[in-house]
Structures are given as C-alpha cells and as structure tokens.
Amino acid sequence: MQPQDVAPRPAPSADSPVVGVEQAEAALVEHYPRLARLAYLVLPPGPGRSRRVLTAHALTQRALPRGTTEAPVIPAQPAGRETDPGYACLRLRVLRAALVAGVPLWRRMRLGRPPLPPVLPQVWGLRLFPRSGGADELGLDQRLSALSGPGRAAYALRGLEKLPDGDVREVLAAAGVTDVDAALREADTVPGQYALLDSPEFDPCSLVARPTDLMRRRQHGKAALAAGAALVVCGVLAALPAAGRGPDGPAAPPYARNASAQAALDPGRLVRVSPAAWRTSPRTDFSVWPARGDLTGDRALLRRALAVWARPGETVRVSATPGTPAGGPPGPPQLLYAGNVDNARVVILYDGLRLVRYAEPLDGARGAALDFARTDNARRAEAGAVVLGRADGNVRYLTAPWVTRAAERDLTEPGSGAMDLTLTDGMTSPLASPVRHDGACASWNVLQLTDGSTTRLLTDLGELVPARLTTGRPGSVREASGAEALRTWAPYACSLGAVRGQGVRSVNAWEFAEQPLPDASGSAAWVCTRAETWRGRGARALAQFRAPGGRYGAVAAKGTGVTACGARDPHVLAGVLWKSEADDWYLLAAGSDDTASVRVTGGVSASADGNLLTARAKRGARAEVKGTLEDGRKVGALR
C-alpha cells in the first residue's frame, strides 16, 4: 500500500470542550496501557518490534499537552473512557503522532513537521518486545503491516476502540488523514479479528526482555577500545622517528577460538539418526527420531535456523515454555525435521534437553519464529508428537517413528468415535486445535496415537510438545484411551485450558471419591486433575465436583506447587457448598479413600468418620476443612 499523506491538524471547533493539564494527566495515568497499545498498532512495523515498543511509549508520554487544550467532540457511546474529554484528547494526540511517525522524512518536512526523536524512554543492552501470541496473532500482524498508517488506524479504532465507521471517520479526519475513505477501504481488506487486538501480542506494556547481540556489542566495545588506544599510540608515535612505528594486529573473528560454537552453526555437522535406529535403541525418545521432511538437504535453510537459534534478531518472535533456557546450542544438534508446512518453512532441532522449532514465511516476509520447549528425560509416552505448525485454528503434528496410526477425538464426547488422520512421512493432516482465544469451550479435540497395542491421548496446550493425558490413582496411572477413562475425562476436559502455556508434561484425572447427595438425588463425583510440568516445579492441581446430570465439573479447590494428587502425596481433601433442588444449602466435603475422618470448623461445625462429610449450611458460609489419614497424619484442604 502507498502511504497516505497526513494533513496539518485542523483547527478545533468552537464547541469543543476544554481539557486542563490535570484532567489530561489523570486520563493518561488511568488509560496509559490502552493508549500505548493504540500507538503500537498504528506505528509502522519496519524498525523492528523493540524500537516500535519504545516509540509507542514515547508518543504516549508526549501526548500530554503542555497547557489547557481543546478536546474533539466525543461521539455518543456507552459510558466509560470514551465519554472522558481528557481521554478523547489524548487518543487524538497519540493517533496523530503515530500517523506522523509513519510518514517518510521528506513528507514530514513538506508538512512542516520535522522529526522529534524521543528522549525517553531509552533502553541500553536489552531488546524489549511484547509476548508472542499464536498463529492467528502473527497472521493479523502481518496483514496489518501491509496497510498504510491510516489503514491501521481505522482498523484499530474499529476493533480496539469499538467505534462505528461514522465515528472512525470523524476521529481520522481530526487526526489529519486526508483520504478517510481510502483508509476504511484498506481496513476492510483485513478480516475483522478484533478480539485478537486485546492479546499480549499487541501489548507494549507486557514485555519480554532479551539481550542485544552480545557478540556484536563485544566487537564494538573492543573496536572502540582499540580505536582509543590507536589514537593514543598515534599521538605518541607522531613525535618519534619513522623507524619507531610498528604494525597493529587485527582482532580475531568472534568464533575463531571456539570450535564448539563453530560446529554448532555448521549444517554439515547436524546429527542425523537412521530411520531404523529406534527399533534397536534402549532409549525411545526424541534422540532416536530420524530426520524427515522435504528440505533436509537445504543447507541455506538449516544455516539460517542455526544462526537464528544462536543469535535471534529483533524481528524474530521468540517463545519458550517456563523453565526452558533460550540460549544457543552447546554443540551440533540433532535434525528432526526440515520442510514446508502450510505457509512456512519449518525446522525442528533437538539438543538433548530442548526441542527448538524455527519457522520462516514462504513468501520471504519478515517475522521468523523461534520456539523452545524443554523435553529432558522424555519417555516413549511423552515423545510421541511435536507441533509442526498452527494455521486457521488447526494444528499439524510430526509423530514419532513408532506411531502407526493417528486420529482426532473430542474429549468432551466419550461416546463419539475417533476420526482417522492421514500420516505422510510422520506428518499428520490438520486437526482442530482446542486452544481458543475467546475462552469458549464447546469441545476439546485431542490427538490419539496408536503405538503397537498401546493407544495414547495427547492434547495441545499452545506449546511445542503436546501434553499426555492419563487417569487413575497417582503412582499407578494408565493411558486415558479406554472407555472408562474417556468417561472420567469428559466433564473435566475444558479445565485443561487453565494450564495452557505452563510447560505441562502430563495431566492426570483421578476420581478420588463418590458422595451420595443428602436429598437422595444421586451421587456426586469428586475428581482431582493434576498437571505435571517438564521443569518439575509449578504443578497445578484442581479438585472438581460434579453433581449428577451435570455436563461439566465445578472447581472446588486448586493449588499450585503442591504435592497433593501426585505420586509423592496421593491424597486430597476438598469441600464445596451445594444447593439442593429444595433450595437447602449443604457443605459437602470429601477426601481420598485413605482418609479416616473429616472435620469442618468456622461458619459450619461438623465432623464425620470416613472420607465423606455432609452438613447443613447457610448460603455463603465459610469453613475450614481438615482431615486425618488412616496413618494418623493430618491433612488440610487443597489450596
């Protein structure tokens, strides 16, 4: 798109409300994240995401007027920030500044607006950029980058500010856009994925910090030091006879003395495993995966992947599961895949501790992605698949060489069958991902893999490695693929969304108690779901209660970093307030089957032998639940 001109700002209307500095400052403090996000969306993507973040903050901070100013007339909208003249004034100033920042220098000079470089904020030695989103956010960012500044502004005002087109026209015209119709037509070319504008991908206030190019900084520091020393030496030598001068030795290349680093960046030294190695190896994990894909011989692609892994640039989107180091490879890694996946060239590498996925657009556009996932001590059950790519709400996997069949199954419908997926050199056909940005959960699709006589279920949680699903008592869990296991998981499938992006290795569902209801309407089920992580810390446990006839379970208690419901401590205790059909309230508490007694104190006082307790209660009552195990140990409710 050709950039549009931004006209000089129009004179304010006589009916415009007056905004004082104090009112504008209050609006800036209250709505700063929103204004910074608007500036980030409108700014051109060219300088890189780190520069774009700092510019968005600079423009937002400079939007505060120096004295009393006049705000534009505010369109009639629901009550909120849109009816605040201070916010409307700042939004217009931020929008105008962001549009001018995207105009070429010679046009700014023609409009009488010379560039004013922001003094603050400045960051040295770090690159700051928003947290990476998913494939949908990446696609939207690439589409918006193809628009002009006014086009991006029109899209942001529609989606972020929820303005109708009539109000968008007024704001754009007030910001100095000369051809508002063209800006709206440009915005129409991008699908209306307005909910994605609220994601962390476009939030310049929620940032990830990475160092700048350390090797280049070191080179520049050495060069500056050498230049300073040379000036001193030259000053001294200028007074000496010509015979006293000697040659200067050149500095060594960055990797000239580091053989390991050189080897790690050489595509010719990538480890490639035989396709039959897994059949005789004592280990069956990612280390015995062969190299697959139609681009395993593309040395240029492999070189780019290795170089970006060692030193990702400003335009590279880097993501890592919690607890995963994001540094370069310690030596030549193993190649698992290199090929075309949907609209990207993808390379999957493995260094014994981490899986690394490098992806670049097929059309050569900017915006490569680098994803890290920790996979140390992976076993056959957890090394069954890796995410190759996500597009249009679907996900493709690369499966292990021992997988003979792949299928898609809806975990919320235990009675429905599995739909077979095509396997081509280990790559599955696309299946619908359960990961959604709007939080809705009408279904939860999982990957079903068959390995000889064993069938396993894996679920996508928005990371590189899908999580394994199991059922049963901790310490003796089994695969969640049988009929009984599917019925156990069905009401609690949607709770998997609570552990998305947490570096989850496996999730187990354990039905630890069944409790008859006091109104004789049936028995309720108590289930504990526990998500284990690859890093070993940060496990999450949810105690969930489901009354008879309920489609989904309700979370009664939860804990993070706890041992309850795990192999180290296969015990759990939880309570919930429940209302009968006769509008009577009860406190129901349940523990695992080795609980000898349960007692509640506080808003409800009661005790019972065994692992179940039922007591009359009042609505909103708060009580503390405690229990005693058969071995005499005291336990508290999950928290």
Q: What is the number of helical segments per DSSP (H or I, 4+ residues)?
A: 13
Low-confidence stretches: 9-15, 73-80, 113-117, 236-257
- The separation of the N and C termini measures 55 Å
Number of strands: 31
Averaged pLDDT: 84
Residues in helices, as a percent range = 10-25%
Strand residues, percent: 25-35%
Rg value? 30 Å
Determine the structural class based on helices, strands and strand pairing.
Answer: alpha+beta
Sum up the overall morphology in one term: globular
Biggest sheet layout: 10 strands, mixed
Give a description of the structure.
A hairpin with a 3-residue loop joins strand 7 and strand 8. The protein is α+β, with helices and mostly antiparallel strands and 639 residues long. Helix content is 24%, strand content 27%. Residues 9-15, 73-80, 113-117 and 236-257 have low confidence and may be disordered. Strands 12, 13, 17, 18, 19, 20, 21, 22, 23 and 24 form a 10-stranded mixed sheet that branches. The protein has a 5-stranded mixed sheet with strand order 5-9-8-7-6, covered by helices on one side. Strands 28-27-30-31 form a 4-stranded antiparallel sheet, with no helix packed on it.
